[in-house]
Amino acid sequence: MLPKIELLADVDVLTLSPLVRGMIMTVSYANTEGGIGLTATGAMNRKFVHWAAVHFEWPDYTCEDLYSVNKVLNEADMPPLWVVRDMLSHLKLLRRKKDTLLPTKRGRDFLARPQAFFNLIATDYLYAYIHDGQTQQDVHERMRWWHVFLNLINIKAGKGCSLNDLVNELYPSESYSAEQAELTVEAWTVKSEFRYDIIRPLCWLGLLHEDREGLTILQDGTYHKTPLWAACLRLESDTQSEFTLH
After folding, report:
1. Could you tell me the mean pLDDT of each successive run of 10 residues in the chain, 246 residues long?
2. What pLDDT score was predicted for residue 167?
3. The domain boundary residue, chosen from 107, 128, 149
4. CATH of the domain at 181
């Protein structure tokens, strides 16, 4: 059974959640600027993409990060924008009219009451969203494991944990303590999938924060739960110091 996501405490969702913040800022921009212009291929135009890069303040995708590898920014160059746009479209908060994206009535309601939409956004994004490179089958097969992942992270990230700490607990037959270059192909694949399928969505939703201070781009950070985690998740491991995988 999928753990229920329900916001029960008064926390600053927009500060804590890059995804919700990006969605609000995108709808707000469309509402105040007469829409978001689209290119001939249907992508968001460079004017908006640049604005998003400057204002989203998305971890690991700041304006400086993005322009360090691109002279100009198109929608395809900013992965967080793919998710923001997909979620806004899925929840019918933006609609396309010819070559422009415009806020819907529901989108304007979202601007006025973003926290009221959090449960729906979080549940759809974490459990049902199909990320780039994934399939519907991948998402479906992962559903039965979410209670294991969340309960394990709930305990391990209480004091801070690394990606290696989590995958070593989940997949003890492989060693994940070595440097990336020393991992087997199988171990590297499992670690990479766990990072992008589980950890990154939790970070983008704002339930986890990765501390990367003093690290290089190739080093893994330490993950901590944010106040949003305790505000919206009630898990069986809340009163446990260990969690038995089953």
Report:
1. 94 97 98 98 98 95 94 96 97 97 98 97 97 90 94 96 92 62 73 93 98 83 97 93 62
2. 92
3. 128
4. 1.10.10
**Alpha-carbon gap, residue 160 to 20, rounded angstroms:** 24
Q: Tell me, yes or no, whether 124 and 140 share the same domain.
A: no
Residues 64 and 128 sit within 8 Å (Cβ to Cβ): no
Is residue 245 in some structural domain?
no
Tell me, what's the pLDDT at 216?
80
Q: Are residues 144 and 51 in the same domain?
A: no
Residues 122 and 143 both lie in one domain:
no
pLDDT of residue 244: 63
CA distance 153 to 150: 5
For tokens 């070593």, the residue is 168
pLDDT for residue 182 = 57
pLDDT at 85: 98
| pLDDT of amino acid 243 | 61
Asked if 88 and 27 touch (Cβ cutoff 8 Å), the reply is yes
Domain that holds residue 167: 136-239
Distance of CA 85 to the CA centre of its chain: 13
User: Which parts of 91-222 fold into alpha helices (H)?
Assistant: 105-112, 118-128, 136-142, 146-156, 163-170, 185-194, 200-205
Residues β-bridged to residue 211? 222
Task: State which of 109, 128, 147 marks the end of a domain.
Answer: 128
4 within some domain: no
Closest CA to 26 of 73, 76, 88, 77: 88
